[in-house]
């Protein structure tokens, strides 16, 4: 698997196209979870792709999506991978009983002699007290864990669902979740912070602060990411100083309540690379959430 933070000279940054880095990070980047129902290293996924597989993956076209939601792009990147490597795959099977939609299974795939039901998620959470909160302030990590385990993965265990699956050629389906993303720790981290038991110790991590506390940001050259650049460690074209970043973030957050995602950078053989990620949040967050018109859902 890829390291939690690739060094400036890591071959990951040799991929010049963002969609290629997004895909490789989605497939082989660090998992958020490591537990029985969502292992960090699932048996069906190679820990490191061999040269031939990586070349085939890199030649895949960009995903076709029209949504601002990164989660949908994340699902499409995985769908492309299974279309390339699996014996059979099917995406977004809707389950309906007596006219009522029970849910939708993200991926059904056959790898070797096994059929898998996979639930995919790309998530970004910030530590607030003993809770983990999404940038839009509505999403909660613990709620997502419970919903995934006790609802989404249970869809393929339902008796009526199993009949539908068997009629469609999907028998003995094994459910599993796969979650990627980043957890942001407070700039002044508490040592007794509560962590989910299911958390992968080697997850991707960053830091966060309110605009009023932005002086906690370390010195260095920084770049600001657009939302569609959040999915993987970034390769950027220009940087600003710490002072310019803080001034810009505080000014923007006076008018637009959308987090500023900034990355501390370092020059490498293939360009300017992300080496640390921060979210600068509005001072009223999470009490008032983020701007409802900016599609802030992760």
Biggest pleated sheet: 11 strands, mixed
Unreliably modeled segments: 292-298
Shape assignment? globular
Share of β-strand residues: 25-35%
Number of individual domains: 1
Number of helices: 6
Distance between the termini: 23 Å
Mean pLDDT: 92
Write down how many β-strands occur, each being a DSSP E stretch of 2 or more residues. 11
Order of helices and strands: HHHEEEEHHEEEEEHEE
What does it look like?
The protein has one domain (11-191, 204-281). A hairpin with a 2-residue loop joins β10 and β11. It is globular. It starts with 17 loop residues before the first helix and ends in a 17-residue tail after the last strand. The protein is an alpha+beta fold. Strands 1, 2, 3, 4, 5, 6, 7, 8, 9, 10 and 11 form an 11-stranded mixed beta sheet that branches. The chain contains 6 helices and 11 strands. The relative contact order is 0.17.
Provide keyphrases for this structure.
globular; 298 residues; disordered C terminus; 23% helix; 11-stranded mixed sheet; alpha+beta; 30% strand; 6 helices
Summarize the structure.
By secondary structure, the chain is α+β, with helices and mostly antiparallel strands.
Layout of helices and strands, plus pairs?
Blueprint: H1 18-28, H2 51-58, H3 70-85, E1 88-97, E2 100-111, E3 114-128, E4 131-133, H4 141-152, H5 159-167, E5 173-186, E6 204-210, E7 221-225, E8 235-236, E9 240-241, H6 242-255, E10 260-268, E11 271-281
Parallel strand pairs: 3-5, 5-6, 6-11
Antiparallel strand pairs: 1-2, 2-3, 3-4, 7-9, 7-10, 8-11, 10-11
Helix pairs in contact: 1-3
């Amino acid at each position: 698997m890829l390291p939690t933070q690739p060094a400036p000279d890591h071959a990951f940054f040799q991929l010049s196209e963002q969609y290629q880095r997004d895909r490789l990070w989605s497939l082989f980047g660090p998992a958020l979870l490591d537990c029985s129902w969502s292992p960090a290293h699932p048996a069906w996924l190679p820990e490191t792709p061999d040269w031939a597989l990586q070349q085939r993956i890199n030649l895949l076209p960009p995903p076709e999506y029209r949504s601002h939601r990164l989660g949908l792009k994340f699902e499409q990147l995985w769908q492309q991978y299974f279309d390339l490597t699996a014996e059979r795959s099917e995406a977004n099977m809707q389950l309906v009983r007596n006219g009522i939609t029970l849910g939708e299974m993200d991926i059904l795939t056959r790898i070797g002699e096994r059929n898998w039901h996979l639930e995919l998620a790309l998530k970004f959470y910030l530590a607030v007290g003993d809770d983990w909160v999404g940038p839009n302030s509505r999403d909660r990590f613990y709620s997502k864990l419970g919903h995934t385990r006790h609802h989404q993965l249970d869809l393929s265990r339902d008796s009526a669902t199993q009949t539908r699956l068997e009629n469609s050629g999907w028998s003995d389906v094994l459910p599993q979740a796969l979650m990627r993303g980043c957890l942001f720790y407070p700039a002044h981290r508490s040592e007794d912070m509560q962590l989910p038991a299911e958390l992968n110790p080697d997850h991707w991590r960053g830091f966060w602060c309110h605009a009023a506390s932005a002086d906690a940001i370390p010195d260095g050259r920084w770049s600001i990411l657009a939302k569609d650049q959040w999915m993987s460690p970034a390769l950027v074209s220009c940087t600003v100083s710490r002072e310019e970043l803080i001034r810009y973030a505080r000014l923007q957050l006076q008018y637009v309540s959308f987090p500023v995602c900034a990355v501390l950078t370092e020059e490498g053989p293939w360009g300017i690379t992300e080496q640390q990620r921060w979210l600068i949040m509005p001072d009223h967050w999470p009490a008032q959430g983020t701007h409802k018109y900016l599609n802030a859902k992760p």
